[in-house]
User: Fold this.
Amino acid sequence: MENEMQTIYHVEGKLCRDFVGQIAYTVCLEHTYEELDIEFSFGPQHFQPGEVTGEMQERLLTYCKEEYGGGPSTEEELEDALYHQMKTEIHTLAMLNDTFIGGIHRQLSERHMHFTRDEATQGCIPQPALEGVLKVIILAFTVLSDNTEYSLTVRARQGKERENV
Amino acid sequence: MYKRLELHNHTTESDAVFTCQELVDFMAADGVDAFALTDHNTISGHRKVRQILENTAPALSAIYGMEYTTYYGHILCLNLTEYVPWENINRHKPELLFRAAREKGALCGIAHPFSYGWPFARGCRFEMTMTDYSCCDFIEIFNNPEPLHEVNEKGLALWEELVFEGWNLAATCGMDLHGNSSLHGHYSTYIEGEKGGAVAQELERAIRRGRTWVCKGPLLETEAEDGRVRFSLHQTGKPGYEALPRERYLVTLDWKAGSMTCRLDEEIPLSAFGRDMRVIPKLFEDEAVLENLVCVSPAIQI
Assistant:
C-alpha cells in the first residue's frame, strides 16, 4: 500500500492591519519525499459588513482624489471599491535548498502548492528530489483588518522504497 | 528587418486566463515575432513554453522573463535565466534588486510606473526611491490597458525626462496580457533584428542602445546626417492599423529645452536643438495630441 501524506509542519498566526512584508518558515525535511503539499489559507479577505466606517470612506476618497485625481464617484462605485476591489492580498513562495521551486500569485484565500517529480501546481516547478531544507515565504501585500488569521500546513509523502531503506 | 515584440504577458502560472499553450497560440495568430513570458513572481512557465515552441516550432520566439511584483512596484525582467530573490526589497534602494537581476544577465525595467496602487492593488504603482537609473534598462511607457492620461502619459513623461537628464533608458510597452484581449489598436515594441536571429540577443542589443520603437502603426525612422535630421516611414503591417496618406502624419521633436512640430518631408537642422544632445521624435496622425500618437522612436543622439 502506498504511503499517505503526513503533516510535517503546521502553524497558525494572526496579522495586524497594514502589515507589509514577509514571514518565512523553514522546515528541515527529515526524509526524501516523493510528494509535497504546502497549504496556505487566510481570512477574512474582504472587509466585513460594519467594518467600514465613515472615516475610512472619507480617507479612501481623499486619497484617490489626491493620488489619482479621481476615484469612486457614486455610492455604488464606492461600495464596489470598498467591499470587492479592496482585499487582503497575501501570496506564497517556496524555496528548496535556497532554490526557487514555486510562487503562487493569485487572488486566493486558500491555496495549495503541490510538488512531485513530474507534476506541480501552476506557478510551481516539479522537483526530482524533495529533500533538504524547505523555506515557505508568506508575502503580505495588503492586510485590511486586524486579527487576520492565517494557517500554513506542510504535508509530505515518503516513497515506499525509501520507507523500506 | 524590424521585429514586433509583445513584452508583458501573463499565464495561468500566475493570475491570468491563458495557459502557456494558449498564450503561444494567441501570439502566433496575431503574427507577433516574439513575446515575453512575464508571470508574477514565478518562472514556472519557462520550461513549458520552451517545450511548446520546440514541439510546434512556430515562427515565433519567446523571451523568458518575470514581473517582479513587489510591495512597492513592479519590475519587468527580460532574458531572466534564473529566479533572483526579491523578498528583501528595500523601498529606498531598489537598485539592489535591479543590479542582482542584471548580474544574472537580465534586462530590468520599471513596469507601469504610474498605475493605480493602494487601495485597489498595492504595488502596482512604482513607489520606490530610485536615484541611480544606470541599473535600469527600460521604462514601460505604455501599458496598453491603463488609462491614457492618468497613467501612460505620465510614464512617457518620466522616460523623456530621464533621457533628457542623460540616462540610457529604452522605452518599451506591453499589453500586460491577463486575458483574451485583442492586440489591435495597441502599441507594440519594435526592435531591429535579422530573419532567424536570436531575439534574446537582439533585444539586449536594442535595449542597451536605446533602439526600441513603441508603435501601433508605421515606424518613424530618423537619420541625422550632414547636420540635418530627415524622416521616413516603415510600414509594419501591424494588424488593426490602417495606414494614412503620408501627408497626414506629423512629427514632433522634443528636447530638454524645447519642442517643435514638422512634416515628414521636412529636414531639420541639428542647430535647431541648441546644445541639447538628445531629441525624441514622435509620429502623430493629423494633430500632435496624445490620442493621435502612433510611434515613439529612439532618441536621436547628437
Helices of chain B lie at 20-29, 45-56, 95-103, 148-165, 199-209. The radius of gyration of chain B is 19 Å.
